Amino acid sequence: MQAEIDQWPKTIFPQYGIRVLDLVPDEIRADRWYADTDKGKKILDAYEDVQMLWQDFDVAEYLARHGYRRIPRMIRTLYGDPYVHVHDKWFVLTDWIDGRKLRFSPEDVLPAIRNLAAVHQALRGFEYFEYMEDGLSKPQLQWAEIMRASISDMESALLEWKKIAQKDLIQTRFLEQSELLQNQIRHVSSAFGSENMTIDPLDRCVGGAPFDQQWMSPSGKVYFRQVPKPIEDTPVFDLARCCLYAVEQGHSDAIADLIQEYEKIRELSEMELRQIATYASFPHGLWKLFYLYRRRRASMEQLHGLFRQTLDQYRQRDQQFAPYRNRLLQER
């Protein structure tokens, strides 16, 4: 492999009209190298699936045509191709953008939220070419359906456990929190009921952890570190995940600012605000424990210890978030 890499300055980079001064492998990714060249710093990525390459290329070019360019765009070769094919791999070259991970500070997260809203606007209507129709990431369940499915499973389990004479420790602990869980079930039913969900077929979100996908440059501009993977779902899902992250980090007071910054680019409806508030206050940790229990992924002792810890963390975060949630819902 090293002998092959040693030949790249002669086989790959000349096709870009670029001379390599130094080539260093990424410490984590085996398919990435950092190149110092006579035309600045570059990143060389290797694809084993050419369709995935074309998907990333299509997304990046679509975003650029719609006014968004803070993404790694593939540099074309001297022959106009966005890649160089060597043996069983397709290599692409992009500019190396210096930067760092985001910190949870106003200087970082507020421009990151505006950046996220700008991507949402630019991604509207994106479709892969017909021969790549399987490329668009379509989750088995959309956000609202996932929320409704979660509460349906929990509601059924609570009813079932109440009828059991000899309950185990975890069933007992969940039933002790029945009022809290039933309140959450009502909130989700109200905010995510099918009659309240009118998803625009042109809308796209990026999924994952939106803050982790972004990068702060030395100039103060925020970029997406990788080409986003469009998902056919409401963009509010991404914003809600950012708000949940703020709550989990103990920054509930930042949510109003996050929403205000987002709305500078994309306005939110009253129902979308309710969905954000419901999602951010949802006891996700308890739901994860519920599924661990149902799937027998942990021992009873482990689950019992995690249950108390998770419940305490949720109550503390919810107490901090409650006034901001109420204010958020009252302002519209």
From TrEMBL:
InterPro entries: CotS-like, Kinase-like_dom_sf. It comes from the Bacteria. This is Aminoglycoside phosphotransferase domain-containing protein. The lineage of its organism: Bacteria, Bacillati, Bacillota, Bacilli, Bacillales.
